[in-house]
Amino acid sequence: MIRIDRLEYRPILSEICAELDPGQVVGLVGPNGAGKTTLLRAMAGLLRPTQGAVHVLGEPIHAREPRWRARRVAYLPQFLPEEIPFAVREFVEMGRYSHHPSGALDASDRRHVNEALDAMGLVQLQDVPLAHLSGGERQRAAIARCLAQGAPILLLDEPIASLDIHYQLDILQRLRSFAADGRLVVIAIHHLELAMSYCDRTLCLDGGRLAADGPPERVFTPELLQRVFRVDARPFRDPHTGALRLSFSAALPSIPE
Ligand SMILES: Nc1ncnc2c1ncn2[C@@H]1O[C@H](COP(=O)(O)OP(=O)(O)OP(=O)(O)O)[C@@H](O)[C@H]1O
C-alpha cells in the first residue's frame, strides 16, 4: 500500500526503506527530532524527496495532485494553526472537499461527517467555534476531519498527544478497528507502552535513519531503549493482562552534540 524506496530528504532523512501493508497499525517512534514528522509528511506527498520515492498504491505520491492524494491519504499534522475561523462541524466537513470541491455536500458526505463527529464525541460541540475548544477537543476535531475524508490510509502525527487517558485508549482502539477493516494506519507516538500495546509494527527512527523495524516485542529491547531513547528500561509482561510493558529506571546522560 505504501512503499518507501531508499527515501532521502536531505539533511533530515537517509536511506529509509519499508513496505507498509493494509490492515495494520504502524507506530513511528523515536526521540525528539528523529524525523517522524518529516517521514509522515513525505508519506503524505507534502515533501519532494531529494532521492528515492514514496509510492502510495503504486504511484509516486509527491508527484500527484492534492485531490488524488486527499482521496487516498488523510494526514493529521502535529499542530493545527492557532486561528481557524470555523465551527467544529464546518471544519470536519472540509474533510469531504476532495470529493466535492464546490463544498456542496450530499447525503453520503453528511453521513461521513456525522459518523466522524460521533466517533470523536463531538456531536454536542459541533456548532462551537474551534477557537473556543480545549486542546484535546481541538485534537479530536482534527482527527474527525481525517476520518470524514474516508481515505484508506491514515497518517496521524501524534494523534493522542493532548488527549486524556479515556480518549487516548478510545482513539487507539478505533484505529485498531479501522486497520481491521483493511485500512493502513500510521501514527507517530511518544508513548512507548501504548505503542507496544496497539501497534502491529513499529518503525524506530534515530537521527533520520531507521534504527529498527518489526513487531514491538522485537523492537523495544533494553539495548535499543538505551542507545536510541537514552533510558534504562526493561520490557516485561504484565502478570494480569499478559501485555508487554516497560519498567523505566533512569534517564541516561545525553550524548554531547
Ligand atoms: N523545515 C525544516 N528545515 C530544516 N530542518 C528541519 C525542518 N523541519 C524539521 N527540521 C529538523 O529535522 C529534524 C527532524 O524533525 P522532525 O520534526 O521530523 O522530528 P520528530 O521526530 O517529529 O520530532 P518530535 O518528536 O520532536 O516531534 C529536527 O532536527 C528538526 O529540527
Automatic annotation (TrEMBL):
Cite the Gene3D superfamilies for this sequence. P-loop containing nucleotide triphosphate hydrolases
The protein's matches in SMART domains, at most eight in alphabetical order, are given as: AAA (SM00382)
Identify the residues that the record assigns to the ABC transporter domain, covering every copy. 2-232
Keyword field: ATP-binding, Nucleotide-binding, Translocase, Transport
PROSITE patterns assigned: ABC_TRANSPORTER_1, ABC_TRANSPORTER_2
The record, for InterPro entries, names: AAA+_ATPase (IPR003593), ABC_transporter-like_ATP-bd (IPR003439), ABC_transporter-like_CS (IPR017871), P-loop_NTPase (IPR027417)
Molecular function, one GO term: ATP hydrolysis activity
Q: Does the UniProt entry include the keyword Methyltransferase?
A: no
Task: State the protein's name.
Answer: Iron complex transport system ATP-binding protein
In terms of Pfam families, this protein maps to: ABC_tran (PF00005)
Kinase as UniProt keyword: no
